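Meet the record:
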Amino acid sequence: MFFSNSKPGYTNNIGYNFNKMLDNTVPFVKLYNPRLKKVVNLFQKRYINGNSMGFGDYIRGSFCLIQICQLHNLQFDMNYYNHPVSKFLTNTTENDQINIQSNTINYNGVAMFTDNNFDRNNKTFHKKMIDLLNTVQTSHHYLFCNSYPIVNPTNTQRRIVASKIQPNEALQEAIKNSMETLGLQRGGYRVIHIRTGDRYLLNNAPLDKNLISKVVQTINKNVTKLSPHKYLILSDNNELKKVLSTIYDKEKFIIQINSITHLGEGAVKDDESVKNTLVDFFLMAQSNAIISMSPYFHETSFSKYCGILFGIPNIFNKLDIPL
């Protein structure tokens, strides 16, 4: 089972027409560092300057880094050996040399890149990243990046990133079992992904009527009573899912309630929660459309970049609820 937007593939020669996609808002900066050969986006729970972001943020930053690398003729890779997701994911483009390198990385010395381009009109982001890379004294540089892609990712970029976060056999079996239990077929359902936010997931705020009302209004706005589709409801809030299961038709709206976790913010729970969260991600990857909602201006990266990665249409709705 290979999860991709099309045929799997890998090549370092991915910049053949990428430069043509850049516009004048991205000033070009030259890399002057003959030592540096590869940049690796490294996902772990904590860094020397803070806790990591979530899994969707990691994918977003990987798209950014692969574009930086191809602009400057550098190799790109992803590494999550020091994060619990490594028990369920595999990098299908890795080799023995990468395994050796993973065993020799100073994980305690890895930092997050914080000069991000969250403001898409940021004119200095590219220069700050290259200024950093120009100071690197080794052939491989490891960092955590969750910056936005410079431009929309190409199909080749999407295939490469997807090839590096494939489910291993244990996760494939869990995905298969969930599909069978829930009565889902690949491409035969839509996903409603509800991100209620860290106020509920990390800070354990109680469920309130305002949140329930906003979510129900948003679902009803996006799903007509006559819609022929099946909808899989995914959320970071199990209490909300329990309430929704009493409101909506169980034949049309499929809800699975199990333990999940935020894969960033130093909040990772047990292995079962990590597995269930990744199962949700790959169930979403097999849908034919995503309806997402979140109180955050940056949407919800978990579903947004799942959609971008696997070529699934995503309709975003902002929830007007307290953060």
About this structure: Residues 169-318 form a domain with the Rossmann fold fold (CATH 3.40.50.11350). The mean pLDDT is 85. DSSP finds ten helices and 13 strands in the chain.
